[in-house]
Amino acid sequence: MALVQACQDARRAYRNWFDSLQGRRRGPRIRHPKLRRKRGRQSIRLTRNGFALHGERLYVTKVGDIKVAWSRALPSVPSSVTVIRDSDGRYYASFVVQRQATPLPACDREVGVDLGLASLAVTSDGEVIANPRFYRAAQRRLRRAQRVLSRRKKGSANRAKARHRVAVVHRKVREARLDYAHKTALRLVRDNQAVYAEDLAVSGLARTRLAKSVADVGWSLLLRCIQEKAARYGRTFGKIGRFEPTSQVCSACGVKDGPKPLGIRVWTCAACGTVHDRDVNAARNILALGRRERLNACGTGVRPPLTVAAGAEAGTHQSAA
Ligand SMILES: [Zn+2]
Question: For the whole model, what pTM was predicted?
Answer without folding.
Answer: 0.83
